[in-house]
Amino acid sequence: MQLATRFINPATAFINDRSGNVFMIFALSIFVIIGAAGAALDYSRIYSTKGRMVQLLDAAVLATGIEMVEGETNTQKLRAKFNDFFEANLAGNQKFAEAYRISSFSADTNSGEISVDAVAVVKPTFTGIFGYKEFEIGMDSTAVFDRKEVEVAVMLDVTGSMQGQKLRDLKLAARDLVDTLLPDANTRDVRISLVPYSGSVNAGRYKQNVVNGGIQVAGAGDVLAGIDQHGTSGNCVTERGGTYAATDEFYTVARIGDDVRTDVSGFNCPTDRSSIEPLTNQRSRLTRKIRDLRAGGVTAGHLGIAWSYYTLSEKWRDLWDGNSKPAVYSADTKKIAILMTDGEFNTYYYGTTEAGNPRSAFGGDNVGRSNALARDLCEDMKADKNGAPGITVYSVAFQAPASAEATLRSCANADTQSEQFYFSADNGAELRAAFRTIATSIGKLRISQ
Questions:
Q1: What are the beta bridge partners of residue 385?
Q2: Core-most of 110, 161, 165, 419, by most CB within 10 Å?
Q3: 384 in helix, strand or coil?
Q4: pTM
């Protein structure tokens, strides 16, 4: 018997199917797929809203905790402080929630605990077709005051590539950090230093001390051999070489480099308005310094790291004046460095001749030298100091190339499940978010969960 072969068009079979089962299954599947996609989108919005609102709550609790640290015991005034800070930050973030309410607030001045519960309301996008009118998201923030002093060095990139909008973004981010850590003029337990850098660092009136001052240490060849001095420049300084290049040894042990090439056009010694601001709790001084920052020049990032280290190091206490003296290394003082760049570290002076160009673009491996010294300085910063904790390092790469990101990632403390130390920002909003997150994390070192 001969078997006939019959070819059936799948589309024709689907149309001619009278049972209706295939069509119903197809229709229901489409409905489920669309519903699932809509639910996923709404879930993403809810997750994003909750994350941002928790950040706002934490920041407001931090500001209130600092008020308690400064001696405020009136619960109503503490609540008012919380409301003012939370509302001010929420004003620029209305897109995160259609409505919110603070369901409870407590501040126990005896135990030092501050606790807040809040609810945010998010309107559904797609899941509204299933009858959902709104989603209520609950969140909380609880902190307990812990008396620790905090010293923060902030390294700020003011190189030529930061000109324009990027510098404006950086100023906003740095101001956010200062406002969070120093919410009023009476904050005593937090001090901040600012270290702007480009092709060099402007040490201001401290320059002559660290370059020409100090004692000659017998037998320590690095005092002389570890310094390049190709003629004096303005107030800008360069690296020191030799044994002590990647340490916080005081300048009397190994003096800091001075190089006339920092004044050459294109290298742009930062202006005096962009000089170092040593540790201070005076918010007005810090905000004025941030406002006056100007950008220009190449990128000697290792110098910014070195001077961030020096402003925090107990070994450098004798250089700084009065309230700018860093505390000794101890478990009672948290020392923190925030390192930021938008470009490749590309400039290194030590060991190049006076006629040579310290930027790698004109020959040599100064990119490698700058990045290597940067990483070595970071490792030395993070190391324990005579049994006490070293310096905690956060870093922020702002639209930076891969080489800069690699160095900053190496410099930062390792991320944990609960805390992030390395950040990569692609725009101004992400840069500000990174600085806010860091400020909140630092604040919790004083009022810890």
A1: 388
A2: 161
A3: coil
A4: 0.70
